[in-house]
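Narrative summary of target 7.
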Amino acid sequence: MTTSPDRVRTRFPDISTRAWEHPADRTALVTLRSLAGFDTVLRTLSGLLQERQHRLLYLATAVRVDERQFRSLHQLRQDCVEVLDARTTPEMFVLQSPHVNAFTIGMDQPFIVLTTGLIDLMDTEELRFVVGHELGHALSGHAVYRTMLMHLLRISANLGWVPVGGWALRAIVAALMEWSRKSELSGDRAGLLCGQDVEASVRVHMKTAGGTWIKEMNHGAFLQQADDYERSGDLRDGVLKLLNLELQSHPFSVLRAAELRRWIQSGEYNRMLGGDYPRREHDKATKISDEIREAARTYRQNFDQSEDPLIRTVRNLGRDVGSAVGTVGHEVGETVSKIGKRFNDWRTGGDRDSDE
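Modeled conformation, tokenized:
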């Protein structure tokens, strides 16, 4: 893990998790949090699913990060906690594994796990982004639903032979997978707010896609891949893209980098650096209807701007159908108007002579 000169980073006093949560992710979270008794149900399930077993497992098989062990990671976590003004500091463990991975799980007390494969691959600023990403998950309450998803995936695999129950469970898992992908976009925004290094945030995705050979990769060319992915192909490719994502809990690395670029280009990132961001004190006043409208606006904007062949075909089809319906409606309206006029003329006698 290489080091780099530290610098002053903008801090966000009293920042709300709404600042980095993707609209679709935030809508789901607000809905779940608004359900009466939902937290009680989750805690009950936590006991049934032996949540404590997970922490004990990592306590026994991994290395806990603190001021004595993996001190550099401990400092990165502390920096991120201070930047995001977090009220709690989640535990962090380093797990010996060649797989490049980082995740946050747990219900009552979420904790972060980083693999040695990931630590070996990233430099300090890239790790800062990753730690900030996982801290964002912990603060947003994502760990609760990710833990449930993890257990449901195991249950789904064991109940695959059950025809009705199995399909119903898979539908729930599919919905959670879609939410999980959106929550990763939220985590990336939190990671960028912590590190405030755009280049490092893109390098993380470049390395997860291409490994250690970062010197052979190019920032602009990597992002160009996302543009090519979205625009290229025909209708069949659009369908295949959906199938490729179906069982993925994370968006693809290239597309995550492009989504982060869109967020930056929207101006939201710079506004937050300037002090314009949601505060925790206003969280209770958040309305689910406002969140749904914002999510719908985002989806609509992405739909209208997408160059994906499938979406473009659907959009054009909708436009053509709308135009056809408008034309038919106009003609029908004129016909009805003429019939009404003639009937009115006949009723008042104004047109009888000409008819006879």
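Residues 68 and 355 are 103 Å apart (CA to CA).
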